[in-house]
């Protein structure tokens, strides 16, 4: 058992250039973001009412799949930020990691604020605006992450694509009763 852990650790170090401290930092970041996402989702209320109004979209996946992928990518972004913040080199990279960490906090604040805007207030236009800003911030965050760790940058790139997909879902031929929910 001990030998297999050592081999696995060496393999991770060689392939991904990660050590146990980086993995621990990533897991802490992922768990913190998981708790924030669950609390935000619970406070936002049930998504089924707005989802039933949006079912007229042509490319809308099932709600369980949409929620699961959304939560997994949010946790993955927390893991990516944890990897960035646990990076040990100093100098210019040290400044870059804190700059990207601050941008990440702004991005996640915008990202988590889309839950109440969509599911609590049913304001799809405002949610679309927030998602567009989050997409731009996510692209900038991907560029900043790529200067420090490529693994974190690839996770941020997938997150940017997911935000782009959600923007397409909100833009796609909205029926008139969805735009005038209240």
What's the β-strand tally? 0
Distance between the termini: 60 Å
Proportion of helical residues: over 70%
Q: Mean pLDDT across all residues, rounded?
A: 77
Radius of gyration: 18 Å
Principal-axis shape equals globular
Strand content: under 5%
The largest sheet, given as strand count, sense and whether it forms a barrel, is: none
Question: Could you spell the SSE succession in H and E letters?
Answer: HHHHHHHH
Which spans of ≥5 residues are poorly predicted at pLDDT below 50? 177-182
Oligomer designation:
single chain
- Helix/strand structural class: mainly alpha
Number of helices: 8
Task: Give a description of the structure.
This protein is an all-alpha fold. The protein is 81% helix and 0% strand. The chain contains eight helices and no strands. The chain has helices at 2-16, 20-44, 48-54, 63-85, 92-120, 124-146, 150-171, 176-179. The N and C termini lie far apart (60 Å).
Task: Give a nutshell description of this structure.
By secondary structure, the protein is mainly α. It has helices at 2-16, 20-44, 48-54, 63-85, 92-120, 124-146, 150-171, 176-179. Helix 2 packs parallel to helix 5 (92-120).
């Amino acid at each position: 058992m001990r030998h297999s852990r050592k081999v696995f650790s060496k393999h991770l170090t060689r392939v991904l250039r990660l050590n146990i401290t980086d993995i621990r930092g990533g897991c802490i970041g992922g768990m913190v973001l998981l708790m924030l996402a669950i609390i935000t989702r619970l406070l936002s209320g049930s998504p089924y009412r707005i989802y039933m109004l949006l079912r007229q979209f042509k490319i809308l996946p099932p709600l369980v799949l949409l929620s699961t992928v959304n939560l997994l990518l949010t946790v993955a972004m927390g893991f990516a930020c944890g990897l960035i913040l646990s990076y040990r080199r100093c100098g210019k990279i040290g400044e870059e990691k804190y700059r990207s960490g601050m941008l990440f906090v702004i991005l996640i604040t915008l990202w988590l604020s889309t839950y109440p805007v969509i599911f609590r207030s049913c304001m799809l236009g405002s949610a679309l605006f927030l998602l567009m800003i989050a997409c731009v911030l996510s692209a900038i965050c991907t560029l900043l992450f790529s200067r420090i760790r490529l693994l974190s940058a690839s996770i941020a790139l997938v997150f940017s694509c997911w935000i782009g997909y959600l923007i397409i879902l909100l833009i796609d031929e909205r029926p008139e009763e969805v735009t005038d929910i209240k």
